[in-house]
Amino acid sequence: WENRDLYFDCLDRAGVLKAGEEGNVCTKEKRAYETNCAKSWIDYFNKRRILAVQQKDMLRRHGHKLEESNRVA
User: Fold this and answer.
1) Under a CB-based contact definition with an 8 Å cutoff, are residues 46 and 19 in contact?
2) Taking the C-alpha atoms of 48, 49, 50 and 52 in order, what is their torsion angle to the nearest 10 degrees?
3) Is residue 22 within 8 Å of 16, Cβ to Cβ?
């Protein structure tokens, strides 16, 4: 977990959502993540990272729509 968190924190600081698209940044963190985590977990964590952001965006949009409909009513 620790290596995943360090890698994802680095991606967040670099403004990168999708793991593997960071170019030359986070190389040390990525190497530790890939060395210490099973491939199946890496695939899961990377997909979950994207899904979590998509869910947060969807909930935020839904909250704005709800606020707007409450103002109209």
Assistant:
1) yes
2) 80
3) yes
27-31 long-range contacts, CB within 8 A, separation 24+: 29/3
Ramachandran class of 63: left when φ > 0, alpha when ψ lies in -120 to 50, beta otherwise = alpha
Q: Show pLDDT as tens, one digit a residue, over the chain (73 residues).
A: 999 999 999 999 999 999 999 999 999 999 999 999 999 999 999 999 999 999 998 998 877 666 666 665 5
Q: Which residue has the tokens 């704005």?
A: 64
What number of other Cβ atoms are within 10 A of residue 3's Cβ? 16
Q: Which amino acid is at 34?
A: E
19 contacts 49 by C-beta, under 8 angstroms: yes
What's the predicted TM-score (pTM) here?
A: 0.77
